[in-house]
From TrEMBL:
Protein name: GRF-type domain-containing protein
Domain (GRF-type): residue spans on this chain: 22-64
Protein's organism: Arachis hypogaea
Entry keyword set: Membrane, Metal-binding, Transmembrane, Transmembrane helix, Zinc, Zinc-finger
InterPro entries: Znf_GRF (IPR010666)
Zinc keyword on record: yes
Length: 131
């Protein structure tokens, strides 16, 4: 999508009011396409659109032209929003898992250091009663 031209505006639309976040945890930005296929069609995109391709958050701001039923269009937008929420939650879970793993490794290293100091007869900060 880097070759497609678009304009962005920091409008406070309905998507931002609902608190929808992209994969980076940022609020999406309203943009306007300037392509032959969709001239002037508005969409919500990641703040880092055309800078960082990892997120790929995308949601049409206008209801689909093919859908005559506004209820169907609203449900489709809701599905897209829920998928973005799931992606953001998965990212937060991965970050929490990494912090947990790093914490456990740090505790294990400290415990091993205490045991090594105790076996060598060196004073340790934590008194141990082994055997």
């Amino acid at each position: 999508m880097a070759s497609k031209s678009s304009r962005s505006s920091r409008s406070r639309g309905s998507e931002q009011k609902r608190g929808i976040l992209c994969g980076h945890g940022e609020r999406p930005v309203l943009r306007v396409l300037g392509t032959k296929e969709n001239p002037g069609r508005r969409f919500w995109g990641c703040v880092y659109y055309e800078v960082n391709d990892e997120c790929q958050f995308f949601c049409w701001a206008d209801p689909e032209a093919g859908s005559k039923d506004p209820h169907v269009a609203r449900l489709k937008r809701k599905v897209v929003a829920l998928k973005a929420d799931v992606k953001a939650s998965e990212w937060k879970l991965k970050v929490a898992a990494v912090f947990c793993l790093v914490g456990k490794v740090g505790c294990l290293c400290c415990w091993l250091q205490v045991l090594l100091n105790h076996n060598q007869g060196l004073p340790c900060l934590v008194p141990l009663k082994l055997g």
